[in-house]
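User: Show me a protein chain along with its predicted structure.
Assistant: Here is one chain, sequence first, then structure tokens.
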Amino acid sequence: MDNHKTDKIKIHFNVPAKVGNEMRYIEEVITNKKLSGEGPFNKKCAEFLKRRLNAKKVLMTPSCTHALEMAAILLRLKEGDEVIMPSYTFSSTATSVCIRGARPVFIDIREDTLNMDEALIEKAITPRTKAIFVMHYAGVGCRMDLIMEIARKYNLFVVEDAAQAIDAKIGGRYLGGIGHLGCFSFHETKNCVCGEGGALVINDERFLERAEIIREKGTNREKFFRGEVDKYTWVDIGSSYLLSELCAAYLYAQFENIDKITLRRKEVYTRYNVSLKALEDNGRFRLPILPEDCDTNYHIFFLLLPDEKTRNDLMDYLKSNGILAVFHYLPLHLSLMGTGMGYKKGDLSITEDLSSRVLRLPLYHDLTLEDQEYVISRIKEFFNENKG
């Protein structure tokens, strides 16, 4: 047993990956003196995602938040509209709706995947419902077949918040390429990274032309660049939703190695799963559950502890041993904004319960076998010392 305890972090929760030609491509951008958006690497990134997802079009954005905001504008959300979404998600899923004046309608999550409970969607639909914002937690897909069926039945739009889901599938189809619109993140905590970055995936041709306009500050500048008009002008609302070419260069090098990245994360994920299975069998915690038709991207490996105290005690114990493990979202319906909308404790009991028991373990491309074994051994040590 290692009795040397320290608060100095030796194993971080996340370390951004550098896997190929990142530096060479950044130098190429600098040499070409084209640093702003819509340069060659932006176009390469967009084309890569378009082909992989079989999308109508992909527009690179500065973040997933920006992609979600564009989606809300494209859906013409306005005051009085409602959008169904999980409470167990990042604030951007909700704020993108709120800044258009619409109201997020939070529903509970499933106990197995921690994704929104599809069985609760229809009950939440009202005459004011305009859309369903889906969030694929940990790169595990929601039941998109059922969600799209509900959307068709009630004439609703579906936006996939696929921030965590690059390269993940459900039923053989890539997440982010199934709903009317999909939104990705390439923040440094994600599988493929560029510091800050995102993408809006357009799977419905009705949004193609307006999406370009919104992204270019409300102008038809893209038509001008293609020679379709002899000058461009202000034609709609919009903002500057362009990804820096420097970020796109880093990201394209990641896309070139996406299969390698996913495989490496699978190795880390699988080692946790196998090594900690005995503790799960002894009732110490629950490991992630992957439905049969889900091909995950191994974005997160979490433990679901029996109660909040055990979760916090284990988190503190790991930190005292130099390991940074972290919890995740605080339910949006219990946030200051959520309670201001009238939500209260007890409204979404499963979300409130599970969110208090989740602990995410270090998982990144360059996590060494030695470091991972150290994490695993400290977890086992914690439970051996707390057998009661």
